[in-house]
Amino acid sequence: MPSKIVIALLIGVPVAVIAIALIVSGVVPVLAKGSVIVTLTDVETGKPIGRVGEGYVRVMIGGKDQGYLTDMGELMIKDVEAGTKELVLIIPKYGEKRQFIEVGAGQTVSADIVVDMPNPIFDVSASCKTGWELFDEYGDISVTLTNRGDVSSMGTNILVIVYKEDDTSVPIATHIFDFPSLVPRKDGGVSYTESWKCSEFVWGPKEIISVVVFDGWQYTPQNEQVVNEISVPNSMATEIAYSIANYLANNPDKVIGTISKICISWFG
Fold first, then answer.
1. What CATH architecture does domain 33-115 belong to?
2. Strand ranges for 92-133 from DSSP E
3. Residue extents of the structural domains in the chain
């Protein structure tokens, strides 16, 4: 009987030692975690998306809150359990962006997300009455702006540039309108009109009125698209767009925000 007990103890000792050795040497697997680097950019402008208005982009992985993206639209997340995880970005003014990512044990995964941020979209119209129509020495230019986009405009301005029909190289007059923030029409927003009395209208060659819209919303794309042509031949529209680009390049103080649209109208 004693001999059996001794044998059992002798057998048990080396088994315990071997088990401890396996754990210390790492042969027995320990569940490792990984890291995720999240970046978010706007598809149209290429700008990073971190802070949108007064809020920041919130990040969730596997149903767990991971905090917010930085102003540079990025976030490093550590100690993420390995496996397939759902990444959810809660983006102000946009909504949710969901994507599945595969997190490897001990690995760092990059999740580069691109979304199309909403923008204000402007409908622009211009009207003009000459001095002789108004029995006044001044002409009257009115510009009406409507936002049919998905977000309200910010710091919206209109630059009016007037050319003579026979010389579109140099404007004869310019004026800046300050518009209030325009709520999208689908959300109950209304059109807004500003007027300017211009003394440069005289009897003779027709004038060409070009309207450039500037807006401070951070994800408004920059372009020089001619969106409205009234009785203006294509060749002249191209010439005027080129002239406007030169004017803005030579007058940086006029560039208040991002160029959104160029509207060309032709009036007598």
1. Sandwich (2.60)
2. 95-103, 108-115, 122-129
3. 33-115, 122-267
**C-alpha to C-alpha distance for 148 and 199, rounded to whole angstroms:** 33
pLDDT at 13: 40
94: which 2 tokens?
């946009």
Neighbours of 121 (CB within 10 A): 18
Strand-strand pairing, 33-42 and 108-115: parallel
Q: Report how far Cα 258 is from the mean position of its chain's Cα atoms.
A: 11
User: Which pLDDT score is estimated for 98?
Assistant: 96
One fold for 33-115 and 122-267:
yes
Q: Which residues neighbour 65 within 8 Å (Cβ) at sequence distance 6 or greater?
A: 58, 59
Fold of 122-267: Immunoglobulin-like (2.60.40)
In which residue ranges of the chain is pLDDT below 70? 1-31, 130-138, 200-205, 222-234, 254-268
Q: Which two tokens stand for residue 81?
A: 């359990």
